[in-house]
Amino acid sequence: MNNIFRRAGAQTWSVRFHIPRDRRSDVGEAYGTKGGHKADVVRTLSTTDRREAMGRRPKALEKIRSEIDAKLQAIGLAPLDGGWEPDWAFTWDDEEKAVAGGLEARRELVMASDREDEAEEFPVVDSDGRIRTTTMRTSPRDRKESQLRDLIAEQLGDLRDAGKPVGPYYDRFVAVAFGEEMPLGPLLDRWEQERDRSVSKASRAMDKAALNHFASYLAEHDSQWQGSSITDPMKHLRAKGLERLEPRVLGGFTEWLLDSAGLTAKTVGSRVSPLKMFWDWCIRKHIISGPNPWDGATRGLKQQAARQGNGKPKRREFSEDELLALLQADPDAGKRWAWGQVIRDLMPLALLTGARENELCSLTVDKVVQLSGAELLGIAVLEEDAKTASSIRRVPLHPLVRPIIERRLAAAIATGEPDAPLFPECKPGGPAEKRGYYFSKRFTEFRRDVLGAGSDGLVTFHSFRKCFGTFMRRAAVAGVSECQLSVAQKLMGHKPQTITETAYMEADMPWKVYEAAILGMVDKGMPGSLVAKLG
């Protein structure tokens, strides 16, 4: 696809300019051809030397283009390129622009048809050094690539003639344009779109955290190597070629997270996991070949996490005295905020349902359930708020907390919205837009005020859930058969622990069993002082 050839029987080289298919009738009209159609323009290069012909080719092609454009404009038609200036082809001094330009060029090439529709003559050098011509069929994509290479060659020649540097990112542009390298930016966009359709907002927040750390690591690494500071790590990451990320560089990421970023071993694992999934996706899409360079990257982190956890106090349930202190305290004391009532309402609900913090904060009108013939109201945890598939469940409400739900439900229904929140004070927040995000911070303030800062790391709102499990077990020991472990697991949204339960037993138990478990837990498992306080 050099556009040069020798006419049959001729010694001198000629150049052929291919006219785009959609403009051949226009050019035929401009040249006044008999058939009103012109597919190409051929001109001699006036040399018998092939190397000299190759050097003359760019100027000859540009001269032919100018000639065609002049004839088109003389009859009132637009030039071949419609006045378009390919600025993207010549931006090599800025990495981001070079990569963006390469992607634009690549898109044009990919969009062009690869179906062979024309025959061209090409020079071929035989083993004995003789030059002959051969015919080869080409496609619009072939010709567009040839034109792009010509444009790049001309720009290089102009820069060298002017004594100017080519630009530090010329190689990046060429590699991206001709499919030798793929920047991470477009790949991450595609992967993130798929992730949005298949995983929770919390998982997507973990993805973003991992990419932010990875971008910071690469920026620090490349800044040291380049000798210049990288001010926008994420922009640098998106422009980075996937093929340019060497395994030895990737291998230093976990070490950097532990040492430079100061993360715990457990958190390091959560930062590496999304990157491993992204590389797996690239392999499945045949963008790169395996193996995945992140395989084994987290090996040993569980042991490190276990060692880091040794000696640290484990989070536990609230003691009876702590529960009484929390339930008796006034959340509004000494504060000017709107969180007092919601704290007062959610503590008893958490204690008597075992529901997670965000599950309760996300309750809406349609998540309050009343089954036909049932003694107790209930709440439903649906897929959008469930931590896992096992967390999707319904939990009966003990009569002690029913007034809270009825009061909240009446206020929500009064808004006229079918999915109005029962706890409108709990606005969505955080990376995953969870309704429990801000409430968690406010409850922590309240808990410290009541139990002191010494309770940090020992008890949280989740400790109400631990109390629920503890009271279930106490009731089961006291003889309430419905409070057995398998029922407690269902109510708390935990995955069954045996194959027998998973594969051979009913997925959901009768509502009356759950009702009996909740009533029995309070009657036989909870201290009387707490029951009296809640009553």
What topology does this entry show?
Layout: E1 4-6, E2 13-18, H1 24-31, E3 40-44, H2 50-74, H3 95-111, E4 118-125, E5 131-138, H4 140-161, H5 170-177, H6 184-198, H7 201-226, H8 233-239, H9 247-250, H10 253-259, H11 265-284, H12 301-309, H13 320-328, H14 340-353, H15 357-361, E6 368-369, E7 378-381, E8 393-396, H16 402-413, H17 436-451, H18 462-477, H19 485-492, H20 499-504, H21 511-525, H22 528-534
Antiparallel strand pairs: 1-2, 2-3, 4-5, 6-7, 7-8
Helix pairs in contact: 1-2, 3-4, 3-5, 6-8, 7-8, 7-11, 10-11, 11-12, 13-22, 14-18, 18-21
Overall structural class, as computed from helix and strand content, comes to mainly alpha
Number of helices: 22
Query: How far is the first residue's CA from the last residue's CA?
Result: 88 Å
Helix content: 40-55%
Question: Explain this structure to me?
Answer:
With 535 residues, the chain is mainly alpha-helical. The chain has 3 domains: 4-177, no CATH class; 184-309, DNA polymerase, domain 1 (Orthogonal Bundle); 320-534, hpI Integrase, Chain A. Helix content is 52%, strand content 7%. It has 22 helices and 8 strands. The chain has helices spanning 24-31, 50-74, 95-111, 140-161, 170-177, 184-198, 201-226, 233-239, 247-250, 253-259, 265-284, 301-309, 320-328, 340-353, 357-361, 402-413, 436-451, 462-477, 485-492, 499-504, 511-525, 528-534, and strands spanning 4-6, 13-18, 40-44, 118-125, 131-138, 368-369, 378-381, 393-396. The strands form 3 sheets. A 3-stranded antiparallel β-sheet has the order 1-2-3, with helices on one face. A 3-stranded antiparallel β-sheet has the order 6-7-8. Strands 4-5 form a two-stranded antiparallel sheet. The radius of gyration is 36 Å and the shape is elongated. The chain starts with a strand and ends with a helix.
